[in-house]
């Protein structure tokens, strides 16, 4: 007996409630976007400059005492957060201290860091500093710029590729689904105020890759079925294609999620934000390739007579002896 | 029928085997690392000790010994991003040009009149002439000093630009020369940083040029970024100057050819030396420097000059017995001893108020040479080794759990075919490590996440094929035909899906830096190996199985 995540034959109608699905997406996008505009992302030092010091001690973290000890140094905005992780024992208490970028300095001076470390040591003599990172404001500004360019470039490149391999309607559908995923991911990072650093950009781009992967698999089937069933309604063809690929879509998402959840729980606190972004992105990406990309395609309509015009289109790989 | 020619089979098997063999050293990381270090030490001429021999024997020589480099976030160490102040060099170029300009204009004294160098903006040489009518003549004369710059674009131009207005002549470096100079400055800085880091004896440092004027320095195993900065951030410009007098007035006026330099000797706090601007000898003339102890048992640095430096120093000391000279490091006087006798041997000793570490560092810096320009540090990161080890441990456990989860899920869903996919998955991860070791890539924490993601996604291509075979079986073509059609029809989806993801990985690699880049490398390699294993390896296994069993019916 096989494990079946979805029944082997499905004929669910994915478009009967399309207003609801697009509505949900629209509401989520509005919430995410509003949150992004109102409270903004909780940028890490990669993007806004400053210093983070990771502290570790056998004594419990006393955020108020840390703050009081650092107050006299006059370093401006200091944020102290305790880090919890299931892999830490009782004797491992970790906190992150973040100091804003100092006026006029390219990077925080070693003297400042030494002063901060000394101040914290007066509170807790056992304290250790496993990592100290500091980024100057000049670099952080550039990092934001390159990161944004990278995301936009990736989306454009994907748009062009799908346009070449399919039709422009497919490309538009795929890219709207992509933008949907990216906006929702930015939205949840801003809503939950999870630290947004350079690694999250990598996660964001992976989401772009994954989401497009999912969408392309559905679209590939749509293309095939459009040739096969020339008289069927587009909505029927889309529904059929989604149903046919559904078990694959779910299987791949579940295996990837299994791997990512293992990393989320056991991978340590350093990459938890990164893994969270990917988990969220995979859920959203799977959802969007079924409900967003295909619905957009339904709206735009597709040229139906490709097989006549170019019988070989899309079949150029068929002759490769794999 | 399921056909695969025998050469295809052999090629696939060989590729897999090669992948496994290349990946193997990573399974014995510490042993192989010790082996590699010991071999390097022996090659460098270290005496054979039992420990070294044992380390070498720990891993057989005929096996590949390439390892995946562990990034700083996994191994601990220091990371610096430095920006070289390339404009510093324009200034010294102008200073170097001034005597030439002066001599050229002196020859034309009749038309130009008297000349005087004026204070000017950095990188600009400004000369005032007393006879404005001679300006054109002066410009022509100075222009004659220019030499051509050959640039890649083929637009040849002169290295200096000379212009004049009224009675002032202005000389600057041309844009082409600035670019060429910047490039030289960067090359020199890289070289000197590399020498300094190598001298300090840390392993596998990364020293890379980034963009036009930045240098990325990553040194695993060093205690902190501050320590690293002390090593590479010091300009270490050593000069020996004749002393004119001493003063305690920081604002003392000095004449044109003299400089006022503070002393760093704590016993002479607040003392300033007035020195002749032109040094007798500089650090560039040094042949060697070693940490030592002076006659009082205080840490000091012994140095020796090269031949020309030794001669210059010998002449100077023999002419100035009884007079003091100042040893200046980065515009601070370390000490100003009195010359007791001519120093003809070309060697000497710097004693100041050093600790043992300071004298050792100074010797390293002097041996490596001075940096051509100052550096600003834009980014500094220190990661403790314990944190790195924690991340590796956590990553390992997460990988294993993720692996088991995916293996179980695949087996439950696809039975025998799932087992094939699982074997292919293991081969896939081995091949990622093989490729990473082969290209000497660096594995970072996001890189591990990339591998875990690959574990999840690598089954995708197999899932696509298996689902397709299932569908084809429903239309009851024989099993062989179904498998064949399954592969054929799934191919366009597999390729399209992976090519789009690969495009993203490439963009990440080009645009990204540091951790993002590490992630893109594992993601990109993961896509390549997973397509290979899904299309070829799993298929080969299915073909072998099918030929052996010849099943009338299959369940996927």
UniProtKB/TrEMBL annotation, chain A:
One of its GO terms (biological process) is protein transport by the Sec complex. This is Protein-export membrane protein SecF. It holds the Pfam family SecD_SecF_C. Its main location: membrane. Part of the Sec protein translocase complex. Interacts with the SecYEG preprotein conducting channel. SecDF uses the proton motive force (PMF) to complete protein translocation after the ATP-dependent function of SecA. Forms a complex with SecD. Part of the essential Sec protein translocation apparatus which comprises SecA, SecYEG and auxiliary proteins SecDF-YajC and YidC. The keyword Manganese does not apply. In the C-terminal section; belongs to the SecD/SecF family. SecF subfamily.
From TrEMBL, chain B:
Residues 375-545 form the Protein export membrane protein SecD/SecF C-terminal domain. The chain crosses the membrane at residues 394-412, 490-511, 523-546. The keyword Transmembrane applies. Belongs to the SecD/SecF family. SecD subfamily. This is Protein translocase subunit SecD. The gene is secD. Keywords: Cell inner membrane, Cell membrane, Membrane, Protein transport, Translocation, Transmembrane, Transmembrane helix, Transport. HAMAP family: SecD_B (MF_01463_B). Forms a complex with SecF. Part of the essential Sec protein translocation apparatus which comprises SecA, SecYEG and auxiliary proteins SecDF-YajC and YidC. It is found in: Cell membrane. Gene3D superfamilies: 3.30.1360.200, 3.30.70.3400, Multidrug efflux transporter AcrB transmembrane domain. Residues 268-373 form the SecDF P1 head subdomain domain. One of its GO terms (molecular function) is protein-transporting ATPase activity. One of its GO terms (cellular component) is plasma membrane. It is a multi-pass membrane protein. Residues 186-243 form the Protein translocase subunit SecDF P1 domain. It comes from Litoreibacter arenae DSM 19593. GO terms for biological process: intracellular protein transmembrane transport; protein targeting; protein transport by the Sec complex. Part of the Sec protein translocase complex. Interacts with the SecYEG preprotein conducting channel. SecDF uses the proton motive force (PMF) to complete protein translocation after the ATP-dependent function of SecA.
């Amino acid at each position: 007996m096989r494990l079946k995540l979805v029944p082997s034959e499905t004929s669910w109608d994915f478009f009967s409630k399309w207003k609801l699905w697009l509505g949900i997406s629209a509401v989520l996008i509005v919430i995410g976007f509003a949150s992004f505009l109102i409270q903004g992302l909780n940028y890490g030092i990669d993007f806004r400059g400053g210093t983070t010091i990771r502290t570790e001690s056998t004594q419990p973290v006393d955020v108020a005492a840390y703050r009081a000890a650092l107050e006299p140094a006059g370093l401006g905005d200091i944020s102290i957060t305790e880090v919890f992780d299931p892999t830490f024992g009782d004797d491992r208490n970790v906190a992150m201290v973040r100091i804003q970028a100092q006026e006029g300095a390219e990077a925080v001076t070693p003297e400042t860091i030494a002063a901060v470390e000394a101040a914290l040591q007066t509170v807790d003599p056992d304290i250790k500093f496993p990592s100290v990172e500091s980024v100057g404001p000049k670099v952080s500004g550039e990092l934001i710029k390159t990161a944004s360019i990278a995301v936009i470039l990736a989306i454009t490149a994907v748009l062009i590729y799908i346009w070449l391999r399919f039709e422009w309607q497919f490309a538009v559908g795929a890219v709207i689904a992509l933008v949907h995923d990216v906006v929702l991911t930015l939205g949840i990072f801003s809503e939950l105020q999870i630290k947004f650093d350079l690694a999250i950009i990598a996660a964001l781009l992976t989401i772009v890759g994954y989401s497009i992967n999912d969408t392309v698999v559905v679209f590939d089937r749509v293309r095939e079925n459009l040739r096969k069933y020339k008289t069927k309604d587009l909505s029927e063809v889309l529904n059929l294609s989604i149903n046919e690929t559904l078990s694959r879509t779910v299987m791949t998402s579940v295996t990837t999620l299994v791997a990512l959840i293992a990393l989320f729980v056991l991978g340590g606190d350093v990459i938890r934000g990164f893994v969270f972004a990917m988990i969220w992105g995979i859920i959203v990406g799977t959802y969007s390739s079924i409900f967003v990309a295909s619905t957009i395609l339904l709206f735009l309509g597709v040229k139906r007579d490709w097989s006549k015009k170019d019988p070989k289109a899309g079949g150029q790989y068929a002759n490769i002896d794999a | 029928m399921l056909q695969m020619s025998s050469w295809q089979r052999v090629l696939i098997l060989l590729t897999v085997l090669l992948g496994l063999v290349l990946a193997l050293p990573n399974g014995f990381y510490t042993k192989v690392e010790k082996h590699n270090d010991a071999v390097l030490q022996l090659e460098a001429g270290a005496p054979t000790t039992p420990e070294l021999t044992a380390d070498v024997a720990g891993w057989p020589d005929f096996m590949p010994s390439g390892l995946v480099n562990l990034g700083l976030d996994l191994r601990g160490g220091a990371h610096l991003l430095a920006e070289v102040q390339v404009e510093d060099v324009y200034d010294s170029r102008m200073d170097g040009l001034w005597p030439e300009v002066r001599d050229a204009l002196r020859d034309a004294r009749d038309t130009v009149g008297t000349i005087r160098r004026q204070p000017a903006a950095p990188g600009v040489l400004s000369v005032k002439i007393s006879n404005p009518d001679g300006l054109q003549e002066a410009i022509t004369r100075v222009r004659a000093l220019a030499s051509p710059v050959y640039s890649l674009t083929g637009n040849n131009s002169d290295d200096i630009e000379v212009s004049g207005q009224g009675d002032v002549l202005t000389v600057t470096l041309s844009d082409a020369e600035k670019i060429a100079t910047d490039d030289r400055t960067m090359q020199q800085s890289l070289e000197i940083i590399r020498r300094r880091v190598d001298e300090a004896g840390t392993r596998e440092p990364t020293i890379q040029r980034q963009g036009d004027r930045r240098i990325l320095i990553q040194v695993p195993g060093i205690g902190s970024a501050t320590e690293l900065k002390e090593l590479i951030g010091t300009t270490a410009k050593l000069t020996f100057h004749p002393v004119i007098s001493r003063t305690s007035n920081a604002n003392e006026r000095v004449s044109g050819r003299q400089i006022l330099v503070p002393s760093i000797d704590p016993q002479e706090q607040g003392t300033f030396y007035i020195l002749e601007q032109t040094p007798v000898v500089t650090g560039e003339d040094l042949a060697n420097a070693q940490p030592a102890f002076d006659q009082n048992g205080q840490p000091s640095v012994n140095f020796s000059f090269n031949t020309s430096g030794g001669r210059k120093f010998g002449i100077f000391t023999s002419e100035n017995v009884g007079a003091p000279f100042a040893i200046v490091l980065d515009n601070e006087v370390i000490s100003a001893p009195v010359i007791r006798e001519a120093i003809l041997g070309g060697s000497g000793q710097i004693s100041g108020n050093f600790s043992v570490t300071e004298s050792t560092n100074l010797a390293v810096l002097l041996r490596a040479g001075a940096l051509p320009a100052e550096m600003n540090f834009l980014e500094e990161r220190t990661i403790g080794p314990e944190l790195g080890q924690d991340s590796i441990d956590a990553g390992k456990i997460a990988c294993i759990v993720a692996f088991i989860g995916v293996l179980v899920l695949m087996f439950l869903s696809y039975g025998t075919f799932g087992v094939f996919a699982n074997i292919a998955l293991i081969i896939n991860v081995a091949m990622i490590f093989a490729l990473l070791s082969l290209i000497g890539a660096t594995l970072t924490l996001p890189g591990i996440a990339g591998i875990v993601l690959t574990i999840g996604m690598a089954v995708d291509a197999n899932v696509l094929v298996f689902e397709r075979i299932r569908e084809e079986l429903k239309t009851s073509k024989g099993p062989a035909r179904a498998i064949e059609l399954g592969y054929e029809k799934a191919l366009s989806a597999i390729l399209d899906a992976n090519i789009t993801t690969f495009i993203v990985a490439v963009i990440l690699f080009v645009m990204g830096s540091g951790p993002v880049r590490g992630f893109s490398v594992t993601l990109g390699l993961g896509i390549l190996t997973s397509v290979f294993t899904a299309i070829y390896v799993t298929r080969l296994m299915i073909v072998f199985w099918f030929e052996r069993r010849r099943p009338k019916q299959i369940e996927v």
